[in-house]
Amino acid sequence: MSAPRTVLVTGGNRGIGLASAQLLADQGHRVAITARNPETVDDRILSVPCDQTDASAVESAFETIEAELGSVEVLVANAGITRDQLLLRMSDEDFSEVIATNLTGSYRMARRATRTMLRARWGRLIFVSSVVGLLGSAGQVNYAASKAGLVGMARSMARELGSRSITANIVSPGPVATEMFASLTEEQQSAITDQVPLGRVAQPEEIAQTIAFLASESAAYITGAVIPIDGGLGMGH
Q1: Coil, helix or strand for 43?
Q2: DSSP 161-226
Q3: Cβ count within 10 A of residue 15
Q4: Considering 143, 174, 211, 228, which one is annotated as catalytic?
Q5: SS3 category, 33
Q6: Domain residue ranges of the chain, discontinuous segments joined by +
Q7: According to CATH, what is the number of the domain 6-176+206-228?
Q8: 197-236 per-position pLDDT tens digit
Q9: Does the active-site annotation cover 143?
Q10: pTM, to two decimals
């Protein structure tokens, strides 16, 4: 059992984020989540409103978490949006909004979190990317670019912050049984599942298990890693 830590999970009100927040709370950690319009999802978890495209909102959210739970020691940068569209129909706004939330927003959260991690000489940065970031996906130029960007960003942070015992890692899920996946047609769901060697989608809890491991003392010597949790969909990267 790792020592209790203060954990922030962005986009923590559903899906992978909520599963991760609940598992980390189960393990005895002090857990906060952020979302644009968070609800109280669990009595053990502090819900804080935050639009991570807004620098002042990020600062305000961290001040609230620090006052309630202490300095953030583990950041799970999970928040993300999609604006899927074929390239020739994709607007500049479709592209820039996804980059602003998924990539720039994660950078902004990590920059703020590392301020106190550096003083403590301990920290965990865990970024939730996607198999799409390296595999590519028609209609997801913006989303794939944002998720690929997390890899270069996290690896740069791993090199920059490693001497202070701060790790930066990336999990790369394949299709997961979330609201986003449920919104697809049965035909689309089948087409995706058929590509996965294990022949099924993941449950959010399966992604959360790897995230919790990376947050633990057991993962102290892992940094700059991209860990696929994709049923074999992306093997060969």
Answers
A1: coil
A2: HGGGTEEEEEEEE-SBSSHHHHTS-HHHHHHHHHHSTTSSPBPHHHHHHHHHHHHSGGGTT--S-E
A3: 21
A4: 143
A5: strand
A6: 6-176+206-228
A7: 3.40.50.720
A8: 999 999 999 999 999 999 999 999 999 999 999 999 999 7
A9: yes
A10: 0.96
